[in-house]
Amino acid sequence: MDNSVIIGSGALPALAELLYRPAVSRVFVLVDSNTARQCLPALLPHLPADYKLIEIPAGEEYKTLASCDTVWCELTGQHADRHAVLVNLGGGVVTDLGGFAAALYKRGIRFVQVPTTLLAQVDASVGGKTGVDFQGYKNQLGVFQVPAGVFIEPKFLETLDPRQLKSGYAEVVKHWLIADAEAFNTNRRLGWLTDDWTSIIQESVALKQRIVADDPLEAGPRKLLNFGHTVGHAIESYLLTQPGREALHGEAVAAGMVCESWLSVQRGLLSAEELDKIETFVFSVFDKLDFVTLETNAIAEFALQDKKNAGATINCTLLSGIGQGVYDQPVTVAEIAESLRYYHRLQA
Ligand SMILES: NC(=O)c1ccc[n+]([C@@H]2O[C@H](COP(=O)([O-])OP(=O)(O)OC[C@H]3O[C@@H](n4cnc5c(N)ncnc54)[C@H](O)[C@@H]3O)[C@@H](O)[C@H]2O)c1
Ligand SMILES: O=C(O)C(=O)C[C@@H](O)[C@H](O)[C@H](O)COP(=O)(O)O
Ligand SMILES: [Zn+2]
Predict the structure, then answer these.
(1) Of 134, 140, 229, 275, which has the most beta carbons under 10 Å away?
(2) What does this protein do (predicted)?
(3) What is the largest CA-CA distance in the chain?
(4) Domain 162-345 fold
């Protein structure tokens, strides 16, 4: 098997070709409660008749070890051997969790990603980061493990809620901000809705693959892909503790990109004019997130668990221009809280 990414109408037939190889003993398909209904029917013609389904509940709150337990119990109960393949059919929760569960089962069985949200198609399914949340911290447990293949069928997006589509678009904007000024400038003029998601997916995947190829284990330049996430994960984690106020991953990253762009201006890395362009575009797509000034210190504290930190130093990825990320920029909890207060004061 190779670890290629196939995008378009050939993706599911190519997956079938892989699954029917003699080296594959059994096929397991991981879905969540939504992808079981909305996406599995399109996959069925490409699966061997004796595949086994494993289902977890939908949503970030189920990206846990308890859901991995469900996967491991099923694999064990069905006597899955090391030649089994796990097909992860879903958004980033399913692809992250399924990759992690597969990597640990009997020290590792092969898995393939069949991403069904825009976010998972442009970002989560590519690059080999897998994991689950733990004690309220995002992706606190995880491994780098490359899938045996990534099969992207953009038609899956037809049933996706527009709020989820926007969430995925945040990661596309992130890719432009760290590495493609021209695409950022073109698309901010065109607006976010398009009838050609395939091209957006192809370009985003190619950009991410280039960065990951240079630094698969995130020792250096891969940290660029974490732009917006030091603050974004802090917001997402905090709001997950507030029932009814949860933000989607991309929504939190969009807010995080505004905060981290503001921090970039404070460092003298980015101009006020560039910050204005970023804010204008972000708020043309995303509503402002709901938190108040009183909560900003508690939110900022979550950054103390960020994976890019070194000891007590919080290392953030900032921008030295539109299309140009810079990693390992130390920031403090107080500065993050200040950036959240800046965000809160903005008129969306
Ligand atoms: N590994 C990485 O590099 C990476 C990158 C970015 C994000 N992530 C992770 O990805 C997760 C977010 O992923 P997400 O935004 O895909 O969320 P998600 O997996 O929760 O999916 C969003 C919702 O859409 C539903 N859904 C999925 N596909 C559908 C379809 N085609 N039609 C209708 N409904 C569908 C899901 O059931 C869910 O309710 C976060 O946990 C984030 O940390 C990982
Ligand atoms: O692939 C990467 O590298 C990324 O950072 C992509 C991010 O969009 C993604 O949210 C990732 O899961 C964040 O990783 P983490 O190491 O901050 O948990
Ligand atoms: Zn992300």
Answers:
(1) 229
(2) Catalyzes the conversion of 3-deoxy-D-arabino-heptulosonate 7-phosphate (DAHP) to dehydroquinate (DHQ).
(3) 60
(4) Dehydroquinate synthase-like, alpha domain (1.20.1090)
For the CA atoms of 66, 251, 115, 225, the dihedral, rounded to the nearest 10 degrees, stands at -100
The top-level CATH class assigned to 5-159 is alpha beta
Per-residue tokens: 69: 């337990």
Amino acid at 316: C
Does residue 274 come out as left (phi exceeding 0), alpha (psi in the -120 to 50 range) or beta?
Answer: alpha
Residues 204-229 have pLDDT tens digits of 999 999 999 999 999 999 999 999 99
The binding-site residues of ligand 2, defined as CB within 6 angstroms of any ligand atom, are 123, 127, 129, 138-139, 171, 218, 222, 225-226, 229, 233, 307
Asked if residue 128 lies in contact with residue 136, where contact means CB atoms within 8 angstroms, the answer is no
Domain boundaries, the chain: 5-159, 162-345
Give me ligand 2 centre to Cα 309, in Å.
14
Residue pLDDT, tens place only, 77-136: 999 999 999 999 999 999 999 999 999 999 999 999 999 999 999 999 999 999 999 999
* CB of 63 closer than 8 Å to CB of 32: no
Give the pair of three-digit tokens for residue 292: 């108040």
* CA atoms of 136 and 87, how far apart (whole Å): 27
Give the ligand at the shortest distance from the Cα of 63. 1
